[in-house]
Each structure stands twice: as C-alpha cells, then as structure tokens.
Amino acid sequence: MSNKIKVVENTWVPLPDGRNLAARIWLPHGTGPFPAILEYLPYRKRDGTAPRDETTHRVFAEAGYACVRVDITGTGDSEGVFDDEYSEQELSDGEGVLNWVASQDWCDGNIGMIGISWGGFNGLQMAYRRPPPLKAVVSVASTVDRYADDIHYMGGCLLSDNFNWSSQMFAYLSRPADPELRPDWRSDWIARMENLPFMAADWLRHPTRDSFWKHGSICEDWSRVNVPVLAITGWADAYVNAPPALAANLQGPAKALVGPWEHRYPHISKLGAGDFHAEVIRWFDRWLKGDRNGVEDLPDYRTFMQEHFNPQKKNTPRKGRWIAEAEWPSRNIYQKTLYPVGQGFSDQPTTGSVKMTSPAHVGQAGGYFCAGMRIDNELPEDQAPDDILSTCFDTPPMVSPLEILGRPRLKIAFSVNKPVAQIMARLCDVAPGGVSQRISYRALNLTHHTSHERPAPLVPGERYEAEIALNECAHHLDKGHVLRLALSNSYWPIVWPAGEATEITLHLDGCALILPERQVTDEISPADPGPAQEFPTLRVDQLRPPSGTSERYLCDDGTLVLDTFDDYGKARDPYHGLIVGSHVHMHYSIHPDDPATAEFKTDWNFTFERQGWQVAIDTENTMTCDAENFYLWRRVRATEGADKTEVLTKEWAETLPRGLL
Questions:
Q1: Which pLDDT belongs to residue 4?
Q2: Tens of pLDDT along 462-484?
Q3: Residue 556: which residues within 8 A CB-CB, separation 6 or more?
Q4: Of 142, 248, 401, 469, which one is least surrounded by beta carbons within 10 A?
Q5: Cβ(338)–Cβ(571) below 8 Å
Q6: Domain 333-518 is classified in which CATH homologous superfamily?
C-alpha cells in the first residue's frame, strides 16, 4: 500500500446540542471531493478497533474513499453520556454525523456505512431512518430483529450472553478518554463510571418482544430501507439469519454473502479468510461512484455449502464449496418432510408419544455463542456427548447426498409437567464413525408457543402446538451420513435454563421436521469472494502476546464448571504511544440435576499507560438464580498511578423476577 493517503488522527464532529464526537479520518490522495465510508461504533477508535481499522479504512482510502471512524457518545474520546445500544440518542447522533460528513469540502455528499456487529446493526438502522446522505450499506454479522436474533433472547429463552455482553460493555464503557485529546479526561472518566447503565438488568426487564425491541428492528417495515444493502456473515457466527432475510425482503438492491467465517471481518477470519475488500469496494463503487460494474447482477445469495469435518473447539478451516442462488427465495429449494417415530423418521405421519427429560448441563459441546470474540477454543465440538443426553431421531444412512439451504422448521405437539419449560432443537450430520457435527439449532421457550409478545404459563398435561424455525444453514450431507434431530430440555451455557427440571411429552401425530432441500441440475457461477488479498496491518510494539485457555471440570458435588481465560495482550500503538492491556476470565457452572444452580461470573481488566500516566480498571460480574428470581451483581474499581491509588469503587445489585423465563 502507498503512503499517499492523509490520516487525521482526531477531529471533532459537532452535534446540534453542543456535544462533540471524536472521529479519525483517512483521506485519499488527490483534491477530491470523494465519496465517504462511515463506521460508527462504541469500541474506541484510538485503541479498541485501531488494529482492525488499519486493515480496512486504509485500503478503502487507497480506493478513493474518505473514511470516517466515529466513537459513539460517551465512548472512546467522544463527549456525552452513553445510554444504551441502538438508542434514539445513538441513531439521531448518527444522522448528525452523516450530515456533518456530507458537508465537508472533501466529501461529495455520497456516503456508505460499513460495520460488523454493532456497526452492522446501526448501518441498517440508519438506512431505516432514510437520512439523505446515506446511499448504500455493507452490513456484516447483524440482525433485522433485535428480539429474535441478538445476544439477549432466542425463541423467548434468555441467552447467557445477555449478562455476558452487558458485563463486557460494563468494562468497555469504564475506560477513560485519552488525556492527549481530552484535558477533562479524569472528571469525564469518573462521570462515565458513576453513570454506567446496568444493561443486563434493563434488558431483562423486557422479556417479550415489546416496543423496546421493535425499536431498531428493520423487519418492522422492510419498505423503509430503500438503499442498496450488501449483507455478509459466516456460518461460525451467531448472526446467520439476517443476510438471506434481507435478500428476500428488501425491495431495492440487496445481496447476501455467507462464508465459513466466525464473528470477524472475512479478511481476518481464522476459518478461511475471504477477499472482503474487493466485495466492499465493488459495492460502493457501484452505488457511491456510479460505476457500472454489474454488482446488481450478482446472485442474490452466495454461500459456502459446508460439509462434515472434524468439529473441535479450536479454530480450524472448514470444508465445503461455494454455491449461488440467482434469486432468493429460490425455486431450487423444495420442502422435504420427515416425521419422527421411535428413534428414527417416517415418510408418513405417525402416532404415539415420546417423553423428554435431559440434565441441565446438555450443551457442553455447543461452543461459545458468538465465535470470534475469544482468542480460540470457542467453536462447537463433536455433538455426540450432548446427543447421548438428548432425545434423538436419526435417518437411515444417506443413499445419496442431501443438501440443505435455508431454515429447517420443526413442528411439535407437546404437553409438559410444569408451567414454564423450554426445548432445544439441534440438527446434526453424523459421520459413519459416529462424530456428530451441528448443522443448525434453535431454542424455544414453550410459554411462547403462540406469541413472543404475549406468552402465557403452560397448563400441565394440556396439549399445545408450536413451530421452531431453526437458524439458517447450508450443509451437504454425504452418502452414508446420518441426519440427526436432537432435542433437549436445556442447552447450557448458551441458554439460561428454566427454573425447574421439566418433562416434555411429544405427541408424534403433530410432529414434523421440514427441511429446505436444495436440488440443482445446473449450478450457476458462485462468484465467490476468493482468498483474502494482502492488506496493511498495525505494527504495534507487542509487550505481552495474546493467549487463551479453556478448562472444563467436575466438582466433588457433581457441579460441572467451564472456566475460560483470554489475555488480549499488551501493546504500544505506533502512532500515539498509548499502551493498552486487557484480559477476561469467565466462569460457568451448573449441577446437572438442578437448573436453578446455573451461575455465571466474569471479570475484566484493562490497563492504560503513557509517559508516567497510568490507570487500571477491574470489573467483576456475577449472575445467579433460583426458581423465582435472577440475581445480578457487579462492581467496578478504578485506580491511577503506579501505586494504584483508588479513584472509584462502586457496586450495583439487582433482583429481577423470572416470570416466564
């Protein structure tokens, strides 16, 4: 890469109410004006995303784009007080940022937004609001439904990541602005910590799909999004449902691209990096520069059709091939219906019933909910240990290959012995040797069997019906392999279990598995992104290398524990000399016989140093429960100087009723 681009390390974006947001800008060589690319995040441009930003915005600036990376209010070096994710403040500020960028003499008024996860979310949400300068979006690992497909709830079940993510943001938001940029950094730092929102508790107060979650969920009105959207994700990521949903529902140009990747931009994936830069540049060249490069003629849905490999928690490349569907929904997808019977399937509806009980610790082989956030050791493993503890239905070995593309659906008729119960459905590819690979999964809180907005307690013994749309998948089952449906009453630690052990009775006359079977005679060109090309990296002075561990063990009383530790290392930034270090420890425990023993603890540590200036932040977080309540506790302790003089220590505690969770 050349060094002709100009980097503005920090500038201030003024908002109408007088607050200033901190921005870093990469300007192309030349006189301009240029189209612009905005990335709008709370993860700190100065240090948090700086290594990743070096690999993206510098490349895009070389391609002729003015790139702007902005810290959200109350984060990084930006002024103000952070309130919540995707809040009205965040989105209205985002409109102000877009208007400011469009008014600069180096911008031609055409802006695209890019982002992964948080930035992918607010890119879509900003498009929903239709600000005039926003002309196109590249959204990676995002959602169109904040209740159904984020880190809070799945099928009305509480995800443990609701507390885990809140704990991570608790640590992130406690970090100070850089004294080089903010003379008021110390008073602002203390004010930030004093006013940290307890987001896990706030989110738990909204256990149903109410107006809180509808805000920012663009599926509420697909017609509101009228700018071109390129939606990208990876099969190892938690956010797999949005790209095909966008391709199917948006009226304007919308394309879905799903690779083998985890929760990272594709060019830095550890599972088979793809050429993210070319995809982004081609998309924005078409919609921001007006180049007639044909992206609108790309297949609606390009994806990596996975095959069976040896699943393990460590990062390993995936097996499969790239495919494409010219239109989505596709005429190449046919419904294949299987009816559970005994421990297998029939091609006709059956009768009888099956009783389901499973221990609370089923799910140990499920991996980390959102792979890509840890150092390593976070992917789903061989599902066989969880399968043994579940109720399973197996097909005979395949006499010919079977390809699945889309969202499998499971219809169930059931009764339960408790007013609150949950069910987890997993679809697995079982190789001839017995290794079971998870294809897709989904949980359902059975009190939500008719509605996520108006759930109701279950009457023990009464018959109900429900349908579960499992997560999007693309999988090729080879000849001789077995398709397995595994059902369980819990899925710890991904899903927080119900308060009591339950027994579910499946009434087989009302049960069916509907597979989106892909049958294609003439494959079209997949137009896959190809391998990642060379890109610049931030050449930091590494003072402590990253490392990570994961350990599972059994206590004397039978409690099963998962302990993980991720040291993200310690490094000095070459541009401004800031030294940053961080690490996190996570602890999950549960007794197989008692779901109310579920416990999660996580502790974060951050350190910042520069030329005699030194601060450290330690945060501790614990969530426990019983059959009636959730108990949430957290503490922040901040120190200053080499002698660790205490600046602030503060605790919060919340008790919230479980209700129907």
A1: 87
A2: 999 999 999 999 999 999 999 99
A3: none
A4: 401
A5: no
A6: Galactose-binding domain-like (2.60.120.260)
